[in-house]
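Shape matters. Shown next:

___
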Amino acid sequence: MKKPLSRIQSKNRKAILNAGLEVFSQHGFRGSTLEQIAQTTGMSKPNLLYYFPSKEAIHVALLTELMDIWLAPLIEMDPEGEPIDEILKYVRRKLKMSRDMPRESRLFANEVMQGAPRMEGELMGDLKKQFVEKSIVIQGWIDSGRIAKVHPHHLIFSIWALTQHYADFDAQVHFMIGADDPYPEAEAFLEQLFTKTLAP
């Protein structure tokens, strides 16, 4: 049995993961180094290696923790709920994640753009399982005439694209519209868009 971490060890591990998130979200996996992560953490590289044996180990730990968070809004979509309400709740949750967790969104996006080499197995399996299950739920709502005839897969893809854009392309969004908070208007627009798209 693995010996539990002490309070200081837990604090250091958390600091390393937070530094890794900062570095990876800015530079991607390939552009990041252990030296950058150690410097951001304020630790020496040998001290960092005591907790994680490699850059990849830090990256995988972050992705593993992120996947649970990423899946939660999809899991919360209630098959017994009102279809349009449930889909709009999902849109809001995803948009809120973009607002509150932009670094995590960029970490995930960078990994996927590189072909998801560190996520192909168990992590992507969990996402695929939820994706398939919720696509079946959406198709059931379509078949019963409760929402419009849309393609369930592409509906989910479009929600991902339209919500995660605000985190993954944050610099572009703010360059185009200035320093104003884009999220209240984005939420209103997306609610209007999906309400009209899904109306039976």
